Known about the structure:
Layout: H1 3-20, H2 32-39, H3 43-55, E1 59-62, E2 66-69, H4 75-85, H5 89-113, H6 116-134, H7 140-152, H8 157-167, H9 172-178, H10 183-199, H11 203-217
Antiparallel strand pairs: 1-2
Amino acid sequence: MSESKRYLxxxxxxxxxxxxxxxxxxDKLPSERELSDRLQVGRSSVxxxxxxxxxxxxIETRRGEGTYIKPVGSYRLVNIILSFLLKxxxxxxxLTETRRIIELEALRLACERMTSQTLEKLYSLIxxxxxxxxxxxxxxxxxxxxHQTIVEASQNRLLLNLWxxxxxxxxxxxxxxxxxxxxxxxxxxxHEVIFEAIxxxxxxxxxxxxxxxxxxxxx
Length: 219
């Protein structure tokens, strides 16, 4: 089973445990160790799956207490995302298209609402990506954060939550894309021209460059 498919299956099984154990809003989830034993997977895999659910605001971790479920209504979104991701390639293409639509619209808003602090953050992520790549490391986290920062800059919380739900579950795809020969350096260059367009508040140019970047990234 591929890393991305395995990751999604763990999240699906976590959701099944919640239903089987009849856990509801406010209830405590089993510990990482117990989930690892029940699912027969490594604790690091369980931890990543829990992190994804926490980013979607479906669970919360309380220091020294454990992990608790947030309002159950949010699980409808999880089920929708999982039902698509675990189906055929055509359905996954629909998700890719939806992610592109959301990110481009968020970028249009970000060009108007971007603060100087956020511009500095984007630039620092580009510099960090270059540093990682110069040492032979693939800048997966920096790539993810570059895109997330742009969506956050739209100042539209719903767009951000939708984007996270579409991208976080398939974060492995970013790594797979960047592992292609010569791709990291090109991706960083594409980030640079997107950044420059945003800095100039040139919305149309920024959107055009982002479209090309997403196509080249195979998202």
